[in-house]
Amino acid sequence: MATDVNPTSIAERVVEAILAQKLAPGERLGEQALAENFAVSRTMVREALMQLQARGFVEVQSRRGWYVVEPSAEEARDAFSARRIVEAGILAESEGRPLQQAIRKLRDHIADEQRAIEGADAATRAFLLADFHVCLAEQMGHQLLVDVLRDLTARTTLAATLYQSRHEAGQSCAEHGAIVAALEAGDTARARQLMIEHIGNVERSLEVETTAGPDAPARLRATLAPVALPRARR
Question: What's the half-sphere exposure (Cβ side, CA atoms, 13 Å) at 112?
Fold first, then answer.
């Protein structure tokens, strides 16, 4: 059994795969396949899946097994609304604080986003665009909100995957850049407004009709492989 793997690390790998849009809503997560992938017992996998169920990312279907949730339109709206409240609040709390180091980190993150957009790795691109918001919370010193925002962002990522978001990666990256530029200029109110508009743009880009998620257990190993980040993160 792998000594560096535990239920929490397995759960975080699944969330990472959701953020990278490598796990689709409705995709099956077989206990045995997961156990083989991580070289652990099914008991440990079941504990990880129960953690994910408590966080709202997976559900168990009677006689069928575990599946990634498919958020309803109402659940998607709720997640986007929660993100607006949390992220606008984080930026409001930044007013009057020294932000030079945070801005450098965020600019480095945006540079990584731009390189990923120019490259061919769609998973890294999707992960970095989502992770910008988690990075923002971390760099602003809101450690208690980092996990909250990661989960909220993963929920909206599931919605974007399910409802076929039309929001372009380049547009997201440019909007991130505008938010950081406003912070650098000391215009916190402008940064908050840009963040609210950015989250709203992503939400409005969702298609009304859903599409069926893939059900391919053979993809599991590649799906749950670590995201190839461009440099060591934090």
Answer: 22
CB environment 59-75: b (16+ within 10 A), e (fewer): eeeeeeebbbbbbeeee
CA nearest 28: which of 64, 80, 4? 64
> CA triplet 219, 147, 52: central angle to 5 degrees?
45
Strands 65-68, 28-29: pairing is antiparallel
b/e per residue 79-101 (b: at least 16 CB within 10 A): bbebbbebbbebbeebeeeebee
**Phi, psi torsion values for 28, nearest 5 degrees:** -80, 140
The predicted-structure confidence for 17-47, as pLDDT tens digits, reads as follows 999 999 999 999 999 999 999 999 999 999 9
> From the centroid of its chain, how far is CA 91?
19
Cα separation, 198 vs 176, whole angstroms: 8
Please name the helix (run of DSSP H) or strand (run of DSSP E) that holds residue 66, with its range, or none. strand 65-68
Q: Is 0.85 surpassed by the pTM of this model?
A: no
The pLDDT tens digits for 124-182 are 999 999 999 999 999 999 999 999 999 999 999 999 999 988 889 999 999 999 999 99
